[in-house]
Write a structure and sequence with these properties.
rod-shaped
Length: 76
C-alpha cells in the first residue's frame, strides 16, 4: 500500500456560550444568537477545510500489487 501522511489536526475555536441570564432584550438575544452561529460556522469551516486537506492525502492510497495485475492484464 502506498499512502500519503495525514496533516496535523487543526485547532478548533472554542464554542460560543450564550449567557442567557445576562440577555435583557430581544435585540440582545438576536445579537447573541448571531454570534453563536458565526462561531459555529467558523468551527465548521476549520473542520471542513481539514477534511478537504486530508482527502487528497489519505484517500489516494493505492495497492501497487492490484495496479500491476491490472496493468499486465491489459497487455494480453
Amino acid at each position: 500500500m502506498v499512502c500519503e501522511a495525514a496533516a496535523g489536526r487543526p485547532i478548533i475555536p472554542p464554542e460560543y456560550v450564550i449567557d442567557w441570564p445576562a440577555v435583557q432584550s430581544v435585540d440582545q438575544a438576536r445579537g447573541e444568537h448571531e454570534a453563536f452561529v458565526a462561531r459555529l460556522r467558523a468551527r465548521e469551516a476549520v473542520v471542513a477545510g481539514y477534511l478537504v486537506d486530508i482527502e487528497g492525502r489519505l484517500f489516494v492510497c493505492s495497492n501497487n500489487a492490484q495496479w500491476w495485475r491490472d496493468y499486465w492484464a491489459g497487455l494480453d
